[in-house]
Design a protein that fits this description.
mainly alpha, 2 domains, binds zinc ion
């Protein structure tokens, strides 16, 4: 059930990923092919299977469909199942489904357009703070948002544009969902992942020392890992 829920939500996340950075509204116009603008039929709209059935190409103009569509749908489904298996029928699961959806939209809009839309981060911050009253507690959530958002703001000021406004707001959202002390782990993991990626780009000469890297996807990945496995990560740390 959670797998199918994930497929349907993932399909909706794809619409958000495409439309939000372009300033389009979510419900109108009907979904259409980005290349030929032809409205999509019911078959095209079936998550995952639509892509397989059309063999990855638009049925009307044969332009390839971005692999991101089935990828996001499958990823959402797998993560939803994972969360439900772990937290059962709890508010934690509900918070997890919402947090996962937010992170997926943010990561993929950042990868494709370099934008983390306010349309996502502002409501997400409110959702994180409200849900915390039933999960990690409002105080931890509020402090988490304040501290992680604040730390990224300082990084942005020091690096003079090395970190964007979207990353700062995303930091606050993650803080609200993960809380204290999880934000410390998020900070360490995301810096580590982003650092390795930057190093790989530098050594392969795909980027110069001055080019900005998209930090959103690493932040999202680290945040999800910490939200999901915080206790295991901390006990692993204490063990060694
Ligand atoms: Zn087309």
């Amino acid at each position: 059930m959670f797998f199918f829920l994930g497929l349907i939500i993932g399909s909706f996340l794809n619409v958000m990923i495409y439309r939000l950075p372009r300033g389009e509204t979510l419900l109108r116009p009907r979904s259409h092919c980005p290349a030929c603008e032809h409205p999509l039929s019911i078959i095209d709209l079936i998550p995952l299977l639509g892509y397989l059935f059309r063999r990855g190409r638009c049925a009307y103009c044969s332009e390839p469909i971005s692999l991101r569509y089935p990828l996001v749908e499958l990823l959402t489904a797998i993560l939803f199942v994972n969360i439900h298996c772990y937290f059962g029928w709890t508010v934690h699961t509900l918070a997890g489904l919402i947090f996962t959806s937010i992170l997926l939209v943010v990561a993929f809009t950042d990868i494709e357009t370099g934008i983390i839309p306010d349309f996502i981060t502002y409501p997400a911050l409110v959702a994180g703070l409200v849900l915390s009253c039933f999960t990690i507690g409002f105080r931890d959530s509020f402090m988490g948002a304040l501290i992680l958002g604040g730390v990224f703001l300082i990084v942005a000021l020091i690096s003079r544009g090395g970190m964007g406004g979207g990353d700062i707001k995303l930091g606050a959202v993650i803080g609200a969902f993960v809380g204290i002390p999880g934000i410390l782990l998020v900070f360490v993991f995301s810096s580590l992942l982003g650092g390795i990626w930057a190093l790989a780009l530098l050594t392969s000469r795909k980027a110069g020392r001055k080019s900005a890297i998209k930090f959103g996807p690493f932040l999202a990945l680290a945040a999800w890992m910490v939200w999901m496995y915080q206790e295991e990560l901390i006990s692993l740390y204490l063990l060694y």
